[in-house]
Amino acid sequence: MVEEEHTQEFILEKECELRFEVESKGQKVELELKSGLAEVFGTELVKQKKYKFSNGSKVAVFTWHGCTLQLTGRTEVAYIAKETPMSIYSNCHQALEELRKKADEDDLPGPVVMIVGPRDVGKTTLCKILLNYAARMHRRPTYVDLDVTRAQICMPGCIGAIRVERQLNPAEGFHVQSPLTYHFGKLSPNDNIDHYNIAVTELAKHSKLADNKKTKFSGTIINTPAWVKGESEKLILHAIKSFKVDAVLVLDQERLYNELVKIKPESLKAILIPKSGGVVAKSQLQRDEIREIFIKEYFYGGRIPLYPHSFEVKWSDVNIFKIGAPLLPSSCMPVGMKVEDNSTKIVNITPSLSILHHVLCVTFAQSAETIFETNLAGFVVVTNVDVDRQCLTLLSPQPGPLMHNHLILSDLQFMDTH
């Protein structure tokens, strides 16, 4: 006997929001706008079109004028909220739009805005809303993601930037085409602050290259890692300086806001804004599962399937590097000599079983000396290490041989069980 699909209908009044979550593994929920006008994180919904959301999705459907929505499938929770910060977020967009108009008139770069705040306050969601509203105004903003824990526009453990030319697909996220990506290789900036700051500096330097006037005037929206008390202020200030940030939007953290007010440059505007009541904290297990899904989709695709390739490379045909080397104990140093800081040392490593299942970053760099200043071409995963034959088996989005033979070892691992 076939179980009937579970269908729910919701009638929303103006400036209300339908919030629902799809948590169960393998579960899918379809959203359909039956009447009226509505948007998901700033993206306008098309009437009668079905949007499919899978496990891990947390969705908020907002309407300015009222609408009727239908959900098909099992949700963990679904409810209508009448209190939302969308009017405040809309005001932020309007202020940015005025700055873009002024930049256009004066032939100057558009506004650069950074979103900061602790974990699970909706920083990425606010970025999406501001980017989508800009796209709806026919702008072409640059989106910069400095959060290495997730993979909005590139592999976790990396930072990157893209041009946003159209509204994001509500169910699929960012349309990533030719991203500018830099290697970091870890899941927290504090694991190697010096290397992280170098990557941020290089990304800022190259992401500012406006390819046309529309991009130049449209400005930049910057997402940041979760703020941690006592650890993140210097990282935030370095990013502010590197990207020449005009304004910082602080989400739901008065302590961080007051700290920034004390230490920020005088020309920088800091604005405290509330988080949405629909923001839900994630467990570490949920974070790990979401990261696994992102990595898998890089090789196997999401809604549109991809078919990656597996091939062998000889150790002698590639150069594998890692960033950073362990510090020598002070007791091992000659009297009067200081311990050398090896946090940004580039080390050429010999392949071994220790790199099995690790992600390798394929870099455009032509030599070890240019690794920091060079962006990435893509990613592969080591699925087998044959010590006897001195060969690696790699999982790659495109067939072999590798176009570039300089690879960087990441701490990130992926078990290919597809």
UniProtKB/TrEMBL annotation:
GO cellular component annotations of the record: mRNA cleavage factor complex
Clp1 P-loop domain ranges (all copies): 117-301
A single GO BP: tRNA splicing, via endonucleolytic cleavage and ligation
Keyword check for Repeat: no
Keywords, comma-separated and alphabetical: ATP-binding, mRNA processing, Nucleotide-binding, Nucleus
Gene3D superfamilies according to UniProt: Clp1, DNA binding domain, P-loop containing nucleotide triphosphate hydrolases, Pre-mRNA cleavage complex subunit Clp1, C-terminal domain
Domain Clp1 N-terminal: 12-103
Domain Clp1 C-terminal: 306-416
UniProt GO molecular function: ATP binding; polynucleotide 5'-hydroxyl-kinase activity
InterPro entries tied to this protein: Clp1 (IPR028606), Clp1/Grc3 (IPR045116), Clp1_C (IPR010655), Clp1_C_sf (IPR038238), Clp1_N (IPR032324), Clp1_N_sf (IPR038239), CLP1_P (IPR032319), P-loop_NTPase (IPR027417)
Chain segments annotated as transmembrane: none
Binding site for ATP: E17, K58, D120, V121, G122, K123, T124, T125
Localisation: Nucleus
Lineage: superkingdom: Eukaryota
Similarity comment text for this entry: Belongs to the Clp1 family. Clp1 subfamily.
Physiological role: Required for endonucleolytic cleavage during polyadenylation-dependent pre-mRNA 3'-end formation.
Name of the protein: Protein CLP1 homolog
Source organism (scientific name): Trichogramma brassicae
